[in-house]
Write a structure and sequence with these properties.
With about 200 residues, this protein is of the alpha+beta class. The chain folds into 2 domains: about 150 residues, Adenine-n6-DNA-methyltransferase TaqI, Chain A, domain 2 (Alpha-Beta Complex), CATH 3.90.220; about 45 residues. The protein contains 5 helices and 9 strands, in the order ββββαββββαααβα. The strands form 3 sheets. Strands 2-8-5-6 form a 4-stranded antiparallel sheet, covered by helices on one side. It has a 3-stranded mixed sheet with strand order 4-3-7, with no helix packed on it. A two-stranded antiparallel sheet has the order 1-9. The termini are far apart.
Length: about 200
């Protein structure tokens, strides 16, 4: 199976562009019918939180719409901060743009599944590459060129699909474990509160 894998640079299979940057007004002051995804709208598991996304009016020129309009399967890459990450855009909103806080990746090769590419960019292999490229800098900032030159291991489609399934199960398990910890913590807090209050009544 490993012998069938391809190794390619991301720039050879995808287009990469910066997200949209508001020039004057704050996005919150320009309510409209476009969805505007910002870094804060992506959780720690690199999943977009639909309810957190605000509506804006970017006042885009017709010639710029295609450049910024998100399509299903696009990947939003957080290229700055302590932890980089790739979030898959899989929502069915007709008019959506991403903040300039992201580099937007659009696949041009049908041999790569968007979910797989997002998983790969979030993998330890890619994270190590980004850290090495940013060595010596105070803030982890992944330049567009660095992302373009990322080597991506591309297995056959069936293997990509299996990796996607396993990754999905892993995220689900993580959420269940976190939920269990939260419930246990709340239960212990309640027990201790009842105990300390009972001491006051003695």
């Amino acid at each position: 199976m490993a012998g069938m894998d391809k190794v390619i640079h991301l720039q050879n299979v995808a287009q990469i562009n910066s997200g949209y940057q508001f020039r004057n007004d704050s996005p919150e002051l320009s309510s409209g019918d476009w969805k505007f995804i910002q870094m804060r709208d992506v959780d720690s598991d690199n999943t977009i939180i639909p309810d957190a996304v605000i509506d804006v009016d970017p006042k885009l020129k017709e010639s710029s719409v295609d450049k910024y309009l998100l399509k299903t399967g696009d990947i939003l890459f957080k290229n700055r901060g302590a932890k980089n990450g790739a979030a898959l855009y899989n929502l069915d909103w007709p008019k959506t743009i991403a903040s300039h806080q992201f580099l937007v990746i659009r696949l041009t090769d049908a041999g790569i599944i968007p979910e797989y590419l997002a998983w790969y960019i979030n993998s330890e292999t890619a994270r190590l590459y980004f850290k090495q490229q940013a060595a010596g800098t105070t803030t982890l900032l992944v330049q567009k060129r660095t992302l373009e030159e990322l080597e991506v291991i591309v297995p056959p489609i069936d293997v990509q699909e299996n990796i996607i399934k396993i990754g999905s199960l892993q995220r689900r398990e993580k959420k269940l474990i976190e939920r269990r910890i939260q419930l246990k913590s709340k239960y212990v807090d309640n027990i201790l509160s009842e105990y300390i209050n009972s001491m006051r009544e003695i």
